[in-house]
Amino acid sequence: MKIKANNSEFEPCPEFTGKAVCVDVTPLRKQQSQYGERNVFKIVFEVDTEKEDGAPYAVWSTNLTPTLNEKASLRKFLRGWFGRDLSTAELEDFDTETLIGKPAQLVVVHEHKDGKVYANIAACTPDKSGEPLKLSGKFVRAKDRATGVAANGAAAPGGSNQGGYRRAQQPSEAGSEHASVKIHVGKCKGLELRDLAPEQVQALIANWLPSAKAIAKPLADDKRLMAALDWWQVEQEKETDNVPY
Q1: pTM for the complete prediction?
Q2: Predicted confidence pLDDT, tens digits, the chain (245 residues)
Q3: What SS3 string covers the chain?
Q4: Residue from 225, 232, 237, 142 nearest 188 by CA
């Protein structure tokens, strides 16, 4: 039996102070908090320093909630980034898509936790350099990873398996036996779990999993798929919390 080391291809952004540009605002996802379930997302930046392969490093914000009230974390983050508070018009109809391509000055610091290194944005302020950083076109937005479309509209290297600058570590491709479980229900019948886009897996979790778990004596196929979907959710949480999505 061959055992592979659990190596991650993700390389956190080094500590950094300098120019950056927004490359993504991730899709909303559910997160449990002390106040109950809430929707959260992250803002992603490329920074003005490159890895050995020539791709810029990227850094993700902390989880933000889609609200712009006075005390909201998003409102505070944008206030620092814009160097001003949002105008009345912006508050009434703010579109996060307008952030893509917007330059910034970032301070990135490292946090060491449980033997891992996490890159955190300590400060995000307006770029006043006169020569703002431009999008590299190499970053694949989270919403485009199923289709492999890069930020500049070109096909991303590696096609649908490309996520950010690395092969997307979708939970369905993490190497577990759960990833090869075949779907036996719905429109995806006959496909393996790893063949599905994240949205398709989420649809199964939302629409099929609750009713399947309510069955007193589920079939063997049901048991395998339930276990695979539970595993996928756990891995998705790990991926989102520890390696930005």
Answers
A1: 0.61
A2: 333 344 445 689 999 999 999 999 999 998 887 767 889 999 999 999 999 888 999 999 999 999 999 999 999 999 999 999 999 999 998 999 999 999 999 999 999 988 889 999 999 999 999 999 999 999 989 888 754 445 544 444 443 333 343 323 344 334 457 888 889 888 788 888 877 888 788 888 988 998 888 888 888 889 999 998 988 888 776 655 554 54
A3: CCCCCCCCCCCCCCCEEEEEEEEEECCCEEEEECCEEEEEECEEEEEEEECCCCCEEEEECCCECCCCCCCCHHHHHHHHHHCCCCCHHHHHCCCHHHHCCCEEEEEEEEEEECCEEEEEEEEEECCCCCCCCCCCCCCCCHHHCCCCECCCCCECCCHHHEECCEECCCHHHCCCHHHHCECCCCCCCCCEHHHCCHHHHHHHHHHCHHHHHCCCCCCHHHHHHHHHHHHHHHHHHHHHHHCCC
A4: 225
Pairwise CA distance, residues 47 & 56, whole Å: 6
